[in-house]
Recover the amino acids of this structure.
């Protein structure tokens, strides 16, 4: 795994309690959509070398000129240091790594199942697919508590209008407490929803990303639905 020097280009709020951070893309940095990096902050920023490193999936697509990560902002030494990182500050990037990348058989649909900030690797794949005009069927089931918690929801809705073979199904588990009208799906992802999505699809490959409890629950639902282990790929997001 290689180490690259980079600099912070700034940050922005993308959902309630969620920030995106942008970094310069080293000229020789190559990755596949869906892969991750270790972001290493200066040890002095966190006052502890052990707390200066965190793993993030890349939101940006390989075709983009910068690298972007997104994270829930929590009260930890790393997140506090990341939030205070000024534009131009130097960081180290280690990677890329990870196998949550798009399968090669374009005849088989990709069904993405994302819980919260687990959307990041799937947005990278969808951005790259839109750029490269990939001829493949994509389905995204995206679960959040409320619309204001759903990072990149507006961009995903735009992509659903641009990509003829992309279907977006966003569901809110606490829509009764939402601060904006929501006319889409509500409630947690269940076996009935997964079965309705799979109906008529030629052997989809399922990708799951989100908190560990979410990914475990989705794996169990898929297994109970008869999906083979080799058709399921997952990634847990710890402490995001």
């Amino acid at each position: 795994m290689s180490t690259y020097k980079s600099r912070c280009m700034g940050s922005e709020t993308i959902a309630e309690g969620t920030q995106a951070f942008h970094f310069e893309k080293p000229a020789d940095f190559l990755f596949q959509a869906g892969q991750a990096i270790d972001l290493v902050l200066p040890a002095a920023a966190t006052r502890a070398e052990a707390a200066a490193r965190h793993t993030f999936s890349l939101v940006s697509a390989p075709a983009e000129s910068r690298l972007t990560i997104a994270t829930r902002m929590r009260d930890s030494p790393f997140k506090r240091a990341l939030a205070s990182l000024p534009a131009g500050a130097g960081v180290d990037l280690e990677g890329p790594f990870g196998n949550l990348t798009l399968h090669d058989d374009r005849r088989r649909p990709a069904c993405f199942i994302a819980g919260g900030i687990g959307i990041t690797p799937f947005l990278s794949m969808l951005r790259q697919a839109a750029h490269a005009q990939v001829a493949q069927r994509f389905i995204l089931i995206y679960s959040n508590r409320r619309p204001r918690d759903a990072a990149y929801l507006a961009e995903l809705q735009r992509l659903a209008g641009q990509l003829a073979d992309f279907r977006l199904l966003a569901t809110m588990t606490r829509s009764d407490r939402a601060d904006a009208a929501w006319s889409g799906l509500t409630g947690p992802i269940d076996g009935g929803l997964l079965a309705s999505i799979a109906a008529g699809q030629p052997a989809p490959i399922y990708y799951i990303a989100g908190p560990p409890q979410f990914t475990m629950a989705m794996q169990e639902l898929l297994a109970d639905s008869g999906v083979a282990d080799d058709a399921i790929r997952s990634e847990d997001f710890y402490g995001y």
